[in-house]
Amino acid sequence: MSKKSRRIVGAVVLGVIVGLVATACGGGSSSDGAEVKWAFNLPTSWDPVTSRTGNDINTISLAYASLTRLDAEGNVEPSLAESWKYNADGTAVTFTLRDGLTFSDGTTLDAPAVKAFFDRGKTQDDSFLRDQLAGVTETTADSATDVTLHLADADYQIPYLVAGRTGAIASPTAAADPQKLSVWPVGAGPFRITDFVAEDHAYFEKNPNYWDAENIHIDHFELSVAPDPATLVAGVQSGSIDFATLPALQSKEAEAAGLDVTVKPSLAANDVSINLNKAPFDNPKVVEAFRYAFDRQAFVDVITNGLGSTTSQPFPEGYLAFNPEIEKLWNYDPDKASRLLTEAGFGPGQLSIEITAQSAATNRAELVQSQLKKIGVESTIKVVPPGSSTWQSEVYIAKNPQLATDGTIGRESPVQNLLAVYGPEGIMNLSGPHASPEFTAALDAVRRTPLEDPEYKPRLWQAVKVGVEQSPTNYIFSNPWIIVSNPDLKNLNILPSQVRWEGVTVS
């Protein structure tokens, strides 16, 4: 061995010894210096008020805790709020906070701080929480620990609503500078930020003041922008990544490499969005024909490598809001679809449409194209450049496409999810402002029903059925969480609504 090689080996050994001594002497933290490197996405904003996508809850919840949270079955459970109670007619709900809560900047998290957060969510010019908080007429701090949301109408969905970004309470002190808060989160979550570089990474350390800190066994957390999917498996093998969402077609490669691949249900559902405001979909016969045009199982096999499941609604099978009756309404029947198109005045090859797709999901668009070809519909594919704001502007604000391939990652509240995909102002309703009075009435009935009421589930299922029937959009398949991870990462906490880190350990 050369002198240079011996010096390198010696330095490595010395580094290991120093690390072990520091840990043994208490130099490490309570979790023995455990570290996790997660390759994912950075949020659109680190301020929950200006965060723009539902997917942000996965990263925002590193730094923030919400008033409530969901368990593995999708039920609401306490978080910052240890309990909540409605008034007699369901028009006000009081959340009682845990004692001794603090933000990562050291300021007190009390009822006035929660009030300040909701007030900002309703009034700040660039707030993305306004729609979610539209039914809240006033927030009052009744004591140091009791905060009440006063509602325009009875709404028993509020505990669901505040389990996500809408209830991820930020420090009012930090919010005095909203621009800084958007790049440097100050919450009361499991971790506190130590470094941030836009479009590259965010580093965190464990927050010892998190209310559930005893279940956080990670001391250092590195969040980085996911690399090219083709390099993910190699990244986990090398140790530069510990945890990442994996394209379905790479699952076998990851397993063959000896890595852990975890498949869990998610609220992500993919659709073929149809625009009633554009011909030929102003013709009900054409809309009906497209109900029978898509072989959902083919999408599951090709896009998810058989790991997903078919669905005709924006919820996965087994989820509380999933209505099994809907799955029997429209079977794949290309012959029937062709006959309906002929009745609509379009013989084989006489109808041509444009399919709008995101650059990262052209495979879905190509599958749609091939299946439409089987019913005599010609099509071209228009690819929208990367960027969530570009897609949102092109598709749902301008409503330019005739047809688009897209999907939802879900919401904590089933009612909020239905509003997003089917509501008149729905962020994912390509046919907006189309929404039938029957649909809005069905949603109102769900809101007025307490979660523990025996009628809650039947009314929720009815709202889902009405929403699906009145919308021309066809949901196709549910995309599960597919996670590749270092085998040393144990007890993964992957919920349908998000990835969480309570209980996760590093061996």
From TrEMBL:
Residue stretches making up the Solute-binding protein family domain: 76-420
Single annotated GO MF: peptide transmembrane transporter activity
CDD domains for this protein: PBP2_NikA_DppA_OppA_like_9
Gene3D superfamilies, alphabetized: Dipeptide-binding Protein, Domain 3, Periplasmic binding protein-like II
Pfam families: SBP_bac_5 (PF00496)
GO terms classed as biological process: peptide transport
A GO CC term attached to the entry: periplasmic space
Coiled-coil positions: none
Protein name, UniProt field: Putative ABC transporter substrate-binding protein
Organism name: Rhodococcus wratislaviensis NBRC 100605
